[in-house]
Structures are given as C-alpha cells and as structure tokens.
Amino acid sequence: xxxxxxxxxxxxxxxxxxxxxxxxxxxxxxxxxxxxxxxxxxxxxxxxxxxxxxxxxxxxxxxxxxxxxxxxxxxxxxxxxxxxxxxxxxxxxxxxxxxxxxxxxxxxxxxxxxxxxxxxxxxxxxxxxxxxxxxxxxxxxxxxxxxxxxxxxxxxxxxxxxxxxxxxxxxxxxxxxxxxxxxxxxxxxxxxxxxxxxxxxxxxxxxxxxxxxxxxxxxxxxxxxxxxxxxxxxxxxxxxxxxxxxxxxxxxxxxxxxxxxxxxxxxxxxxxxxxxxxxxxxxxxxxxxxxxxxxxxxxxxxxxxxxxxxxxxxxxxxxxxxxxxxxxxxxxxxxxxxxxxxxxxxxxxxxxxxxxxxxxxxxxxxxxxxxxxxxxxxxxxxxxxxxxxxxxxxxxxxxxxxxxxxxxxxxxxxxxxxxxxxxxxxxxxxxxxxxxxxxxxxxxxxxxxxxxxxxxxxxxxxxxxxxxxxxxxxxxxxxxxxxxxxxxxxxxxxxxxxxxxxxxxxxxxxxxxxxxxxxxxxxxxxxxxxxxxxxxxxxxxxxxxxxxxxxxxxxxxxxxxxxxxxxxxxxxxxxxxxxxxxxxxxxxxxxxxxxxxxxxx
Length: 601
Prior knowledge:
Number of strands: 22
Distance between the termini: 75 Å
CATH topology of the largest domain: TIM Barrel
Radius of gyration: 28 Å
Shape: globular
CATH superfamily of the largest domain: Glycosidases
Strand content: 15-25%
Largest sheet: 10 strands, mixed
Number of domains: 3
C-alpha cells in the first residue's frame, strides 16, 4: 500500500500568487560534501501560492523513514508542516525509492536525484536506506529563499562516497542524541561510535540504557546513521576471558545495544592491559594463563565466541577489534625503531610479531582489525606501510583508525577550526580493509566539529577535496557567514597563547629532564656500550626539546604578552556575541584559561 505525504510549502514572507517553472541559468548546488556528478537543468520551481504542494510518495519502511527525515529537515529550516490530506491541485511530487537489486549503485550509500520536467516529478533513489537519507539532505539544498520568494532549483545528481565506511567517535550524552545524529547525517558521517571507557562493558549502566533508548527512538523514525558500540575490555574491570560470567556480562551489554539500533561492535584491547617488557601484553588472571598460550590467543578466542554468538542469534552487526599492538609507536615500548640493532630488539619485536601473526591467522575473517598506521598519529601512510602491517597480519589488510585531527598544532591537541589534511596513497580507499577509515575525535566537541565536517568531505570525494574551501564551507555552515571569519581570526589568537605558554613550560622542564639524565650518565660511566648509547640518545633528545623553542622572555614580559593576547581573543568573541549570542556561548568554552602566574617559572 502506498503512502502519500503532503508537504505544504508555506514559507514566511512569500508572495501568494501562483506556481511556475522558470528558466534559471547559472544555478549552482552548494552542498558539502560536494556530490560526484551534478547537472543543472537550468530550471527552477517558483513557489508563491497556497496551492503549491509537494507530494511525497513512499511505500517501504526505508522510504518512509527518509520521508520522515525530509519533513524533519524542512521543519527545522523553514517551519514547514506535513499535511496528510490528498489535494487534487498538487503540481509536483517527490518519489523516494529503495532499489535493493539495482546493480547500477556502487554501494548502499549511492543515490540518484532525477528531475522529470514532463512528469513534474523529483525522484530520489538508492539501494540503501542511508543513501536515501543522503539524497534527502542533498535535495534540501535545492531549495533557496531569495528576495521574498521561495524556489526549488532543479538538478540531476549522481553521488556516492569513495570511502563507504566513515566513522567518528563521540562522547554521547542523553540530551544531545538528536543534535548529534542529525549532525552526522547532514555531514555524511556513516557511523557514530559511542566512545569507549565511558560506559561499562561488564554491566548495564543506567545512563547507558537511557542513551540507547534515545538512539532507538531516532532510529525507529529516521533510520541512520549507523551506531557503533565500543568497549575497552581492560578498562575499569579487567576481563577474565576464561570466566563464563565475564563473557556473559559483555554479551548482555552488547545485546542491549543491538536491540536499540547498534549495528557495529568494536572490542578494544589497547593501552590498558597489563604489560611486561619482553613479553608484550599479558593475561590478567592465572586461569587465563592456564587456558591460553598468550594474550593474542585469549583475545582471538573472545572475538570468535562473539562472532559465533552474533551468527547464532542472526544479529547483523559488524565486528571490529583493536589489538594491544596497533602501531610501531607502542604505548609502552615507544618508538620501536630505537630497539633495532640493540640487545633488546627481540624483547620489543617478538611479542608484536607473535601477536599479530596469531591474530591474522586465527581471528574470524568477518572481524576488522584496527591499525593506526606506523605511528599513533600517522600524518603520512605509504603503500609500503600498509603492506608491512598486512604482512604482520599474515595477509590480512588492517582497518585504519585515524588519530590525526589531534596532531595539527604545537602544544595542543585541539583540531580547532582546522581542515583535514593527510598524505595517503592514491586511491587509498581501494586498498584499506572495509573501504573505510574511522576518525578518533569527539563529534560533540565544539572545537572538533569543523574538522570532522572537512574530514567527511575528504572521505566522500577525495579527488575533488580542497582543504581551504572545505573549511570555509564548514565554518559558515556551523556559525554563519558573518561569524566564520571572526572565529578563524580567534583561532589564530587562541593558538598563539597556547603556544606561548607551552614554549615556556617546555624550556624549563627540559632542564628538569637534564638533571635526571645526568644521574644516569654517572651511574654507568661509558660501559656497557649500549647503556652509553641510550644516554647519548637522551642527551640529544633533551637538546632537541629545549632548542625547539625560543629562549623565554623575562617573566614580567611573558605575563604582559599573555594578558595582551587574552584581550585580543576576548575582543574577537565580543564581536561574535554581537552577531550571534548562541554562537558565542558555544565557542567561549574553547578558550584555555591563563596560567597561574604565581607558580609558573
């Protein structure tokens, strides 16, 4: 049975005289990410009377959810109201179609928008529900309000993402679910991951249950985006994999998520498990040590059990796993290159190779294995890097978890109003596991939102990505055309004060480091040689750290400069407040406080 939704396009300050299709050469479609292919029909529908309706024809569940989301967007932006009465005066209709078996679609997010002038019809079609939602978002940008009239510019669009998996982590809060999921859809975030370490893996937290109920409400009405559960199984309570009760508790938490709309599960064993030099990551209990040879075997068993459980109950959830070793810049060993050609080389590399070889050979094929590149924040990844880690995994390609939006500026991890910019091999999306990348960054955080938007811009259409243009569009979308340039000015001043404080602290702390290094020198003299070599490395490190910053000003001058910069950033935000007080309230928390001038060196 077909369902017909009617949207009354009754916009404010509209001249109510009639409806017509007009020639309108030079129409451009401003939408981010930029669609792959757009053809302007050089026509517009001018809507200026009460008989101007758009009927939306849908039938299947996925189509209804897309229609609901179109109504949601129109209501938010224009104050439109759905009318469910059939009216014979309808001039145009929107048809939303799911085409499940159509092979013309590259992936399930590929969508078409076709405008038929003969039938007065706009068709949004895709093979997947997410594709329909993205088509709806693009269509919203057909609508323009100019000089007291509303018009719908007509385009044909053929669009799909290059990276089909585009995830972002977020610190979910119950009262921000709607805002976050809408932000994700508008900006083409395919998956939002509930950040790990916030909610327990071994029990159902009340707040977590309330959060999942909010997510389910959104998913039932609108569908996407996809949601990922992330659990670090060595955080708060270290898992005992040989203990059936621990496995059952984890499955109970996961099952609750699946029943509330979670479609992806990530199990993390990084950073927090016990570690022993020469052995790598080690098991947490005597029972686990009796049952499993090593850490990797126990974790592989867990992921196999989880995969079998999903299959047993026909739960359609993707599985991701982050091992203890996920890069050559290890949590405990540090830069593992420093161990090469030393007596400790095997102590560093044997556990890594052992674990990754075992995981690659024995982990279920359905599981994506996380990797961050050669470093935790890899600003450059080559084909050789990818092949090397694939070799560690015995032929399995890793899935990239990208931490780099935290690595743009000195003395701060904020990605403050910054465009995504990394160096990858050409057609990188064809070479990574799962045709995707996940971005580690809090999508709820004000200083991260613009960076995330530009990241999705890149992942959707890397060939046409322009970092400067992308950032400008993101800033205007988030904060308005008048506030955007002021906030980019604020960014430079804010980074200036962070750098000034950081440089001073580093200069003096390098001296503290040197006093410790000198003690090591006198303990071992120059023998054995490798200890002396390590001492000289530490000496070089200290000199590099100290001389990477300028010699500090007098404390009085430092204080005066900090106060002067503080006045600048406050003056800029005062101008923002005059333009839009809501934007001011959102951004003011980004400012770091001034240091305690009484205690700083």
